[in-house]
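Bench notes, afternoon.
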Amino acid sequence: MTQGYLTGRTIFCIGMTQLINWGITFYMPGVFGAAIMAETGWSSGETFSGLSVAMLVMGLVSPLIGPVMARTGGRTLMMAGTLAITIGCFLMAFTYSTLAWDAVWILTGAGMRLALYDAAFAMLVETAGAEARKAISLVTLLGGLASAAF
């Protein structure tokens, strides 16, 4: 990225990170919930509790993330968040206890707070300032497609 200017490729890539990260986190339980319940024998409450845990973590860490984002920028947080989400998804594949399931969702929830819209919008604004409005709209549209794609 060039300071002060966003290319179409950059906006598309940031939008795709939103589409993928929303899909593999927020929409994943809806897609794989039945298979997870069949394989583990968990109830729907136990299976879907993970996403609730993640959203609780997102809310709890939000006040801490703002100042860190101001110091480090959105790019660093998005990379860290995406790494946390990736590790969380990998660990979910090997989790067979509800306690471990919820623990992995704690990690995933922290990653979601770091990698979803907040950090992306911060990165766009830190790069292009007020000119980021159109880019934010386009990234939001791509992220919103996750519900249909996943």
